[in-house]
Amino acid sequence: MLLRTRITLIVALGFAVLMLGIWGATLLRDRVAETQEAELAIEGQTVLWREIVAFQTSNLARILERVDSSAAFRIALGFSDRPGVAAAIRELGVNINDDDTYFEVMSADREVVFSDGGTANRYILDAGSLDRALKGEVLSGLRQVGANQVIVLTTRTVELPGKGTAVLILGRDAALGMERFARGLTATTTLVTLRGRVVASTDFRLWERAKLAITPRRPTSERMVLEGRNYNVTSIPISDISASTVGALVSFEDTTETVQATAFIRQSAVAGAIGLVLIGVIGLNVFLWYSFRPLESAIDVLQALARGDTSVTVGHVGNDEIGRIASAVLALRGNVQALAETRRQRERVRRRQEAVISAELQALADAIDPTDREEVLALLAKGSEGEQDDELRRVARVLHDLSRRIVEQHTRLSSMVVELREALITKTKLAGLQQELEIARQVQLAILPKEFPPDARVAIHGQMTPAREVGGDFYDYFMIDDTNLGFVVADVSGKGVPAALFMAIARTLLRSTALFERSPASSIRRLNDLLAVENEQMLFVTVLYGVIDLSSGRVTYVNAGHNLPYRITRAGEVSTVPSTGGMAVAVLEGFVYVEHELHLQPGDTLFLYTDGVNEAFDVDEKPYGEERLEDLLKSGAADWSVPELSERVLASVHVFERGAPQADDITCLTLRYFGGHGPRRTR
């Protein structure tokens, strides 16, 4: 059996199994749908019947309310005037002569006070129901008053003059509600009692033909075929005013058109599915026949190649897997055909390769030393007679000699490369050191304080420009408490990394000390003792540290060998701040520092700087000097903003230098006091 035939049979079997599975699932779904439909039908009809009964009892209750409020009815009933009672009721719209209407008045002693038929022995209510009604309970619902008679009634308890408590009972035949129920369902409806007697029916002949055996107390829903018509038969139990079942409502809903339409759709779907399966199987067989043609041709080619015949070829090649097999067979056929030609070309190619190798060896010999090159060329031109494969042997000897010479030359070049590599490593280390210095510079600038938090009492600004990647100058300002502000400018001896490290240590120790030692003299003395203990590098630092009381403007400061700062009044007067006579920090352990005070007025400015300003040199080796700095400050420093003052000083120094390299670190700190009574903004 051909492969395509087996595949077609397997697919057809799969389609058959799939269709059976779908058919079984459809039957199961239909059964579930029928069950759900039956439950919905029972629930829906039960709700509809309750609504109809509730609507009828509501109408009856409104009629009894009008009867109870009629004075003529009460007077006639009090005098036992039966014609008067009947007339009063008819005036209220109740026709007691109608066979479908029931009206009774029962007294507290269970006597019939009035009955619509004029008989006093009709009891619509049983004793238990009458007792409940006499107690004031309103009874509404169904009541079976005969073997095949069921009514819908409601009661009302009233007080009659001279007769005491009485119960008004008004009812209508349940067949009226059953007809409304049938119209609501668009179905035929029959009301039967518990004994199976028909109370009323909208199609009595259909009921007799159906010959149903129902259980009135249990709701049921089923389908049946009667005289070629399809019906949904639903039976729901109905309860009376005592909540006991009195019968059942049986409805016949004609579903012939729906069933026929459903059957037609199902038959059409089955026929369509069978047709699609047949078309699919036939189409698959045709497709497989067309797709397997290259495979059959490839088999023919392989069989011909096995016989040594290379004339057979594949006629059609596709892009699928079978087409790829056919293409591979075609490639195999081409390879077999080319094999013989390859053997014929081998000798010719070998001779060409020998010539090419010789030419390449000559070119390679040009890359070595001239002396070696001449020897290699001479060896290459020399022939050997009487040997087999003389050309290849000669080329091998030349290649061996040439490789030896190249190795020797490579050794010499390797020595040179090692020397160059060592020089490159040295250069790389220098570049790494430069990068580390740049990182240290960024870290040093990062530890300096940034902008001072806005405060209406003071403005402060610092600026530092290192002469190298890192410097030994630093400035700092910080709030000691809500009133006192500490500020400092310092200059470490030397430059570069040692000065930068010593600066970082001094700044950290001073800030931590100042938070516990409120006196500037005590803070500087403690800093001096800490730095002078193990100062093996003999570094020192000049410091000007002060504390300003922002509420009063009192400044307490210590000058440890630093440049004298300038005080600039609001009027523009410039003067130096007196020195306290202290030596540089870290020189002598145990040195006692003295602090001085000065009072700033609102608008006064303190300008602190390092010797990088006054000791800056131009291209002619002339110093900037304190006089030039004082002249600059007197030219309007009181009117400049705090950041602008430092920037103008730095710009003046750069202009003075005229391109000369910066000799030392330049640091400026400007503090302007505005008074201690302005509103203060929190940090």
Task: Characterize the structure shown.
By secondary structure, this protein is α+β, with helices and mostly antiparallel strands. 49% of the residues lie in helices and 21% in strands. It contains 15 helices and 20 strands. It has helices at 3-68, 71-78, 82-91, 127-134, 174-185, 204-210, 256-306, 321-365, 370-381, 390-447, 496-514, 520-532, 611-614, 626-634, 642-657; strands at residues 101-107, 112-115, 140-146, 149-160, 164-173, 188-193, 198-201, 220-226, 229-239, 245-254, 458-465, 473-479, 484-492, 541-549, 554-560, 566-568, 574-576, 596-599, 605-609, 666-673. The strands form 4 sheets. A 5-stranded antiparallel sheet has the order 2-1-5-4-3, with helices on both faces. β4 (149-160) and β5 form a beta hairpin. α8 (321-365) packs across α9 (370-381).
